[in-house]
Amino acid sequence: MTDTFADALEALDPLTPEPAKLSPPTEPKPRRRLPYMAYEHQQQITRLCVRCGLLLMQYGAESATVTDLCRRLGLALGLASVECGIAYNGLTITTIYNNRCITTLRASTTHAINVNIIVQIQRIVLDLESMPVTSTLEHATYRFDEIDRGTYPAKMVAPMVGVACACFAYLAGGDILVCLVTFIASMMGYSLRLWLSNRNFNPFISALIAACFGSIFASTALLLGIGNDPHIAMASSVLWLVPSFPLINSLSDMFKGYMNIGIGRFMFVIILTLSSCIGIVLSLLLLNISHWGVG
């Protein structure tokens, strides 16, 4: 009797939770599969994405540009996803298509900064995005093979470097003789560094030797009393060694979250600047000059 009464009260109590009703198990929805793509075809696209990323890294593109263009290139060629991992001296690309992943790792080498190549790659990706997927792989490979890697000849660049440094000397208050010494010293220093780089010298050693040689030549203006202020020539003749482009890229990478390569590029800038400073100090010690710079 007591149990029956308790059961009746429990049934009337609105706070008593009702037993949960078990719903029948539902079948998982099948994933949408993309059209068939051969493994070799995906492999070729992966290699092309790596090639794109390496070219961008080698010629001075920032990390965000490398990641974006590699991803867009893979999507334009029909892949489902492209993941990109960037290190200072390497690039890792993973392409995904119908749950099939292909990952490749390539080492990166540093070349001279060439914005023209970066612009050409951007145009290739834009063209591929506007083309049908079925006919873009061969066209993309052909376009990458035909990239123009030409640069201005050294006989043209060296005088322009000299003119730029001479203009800085003029802005600092140097007369015609000081500007002339700056022009010759910076042009010869740049030519020496280019000669060393073409023979695969370490870039830090090349900067050190070029800074030392250029400073020694500019210091002759002080020893011979040429110009109104020879110290201007000594300071202006090595301004071309300032690594402004890598410094901007390193800060941009760190601000955009690519800390690994950003710190690597920043350390490259620091060591390159330190090498140039050591070369300048060596030239001052060799010539027994106690003062350097404007003023």
Automatic annotation (TrEMBL):
GO molecular function annotations of the record: transmembrane transporter activity
Principal location listed in the UniProt entry: membrane
Coiled coil: none
Record-given protein name: Inner membrane protein YjjP
UniProt key word Transmembrane helix: yes
Ribosomal protein as UniProt keyword: no
Entry keywords, A to Z: Cell membrane, Membrane, Transmembrane, Transmembrane helix
Domain Threonine/serine exporter-like N-terminal span(s) in chain numbering: 47-286
Membrane-protein topology: Multi-pass membrane protein
Organism encoding this protein: Faucicola osloensis
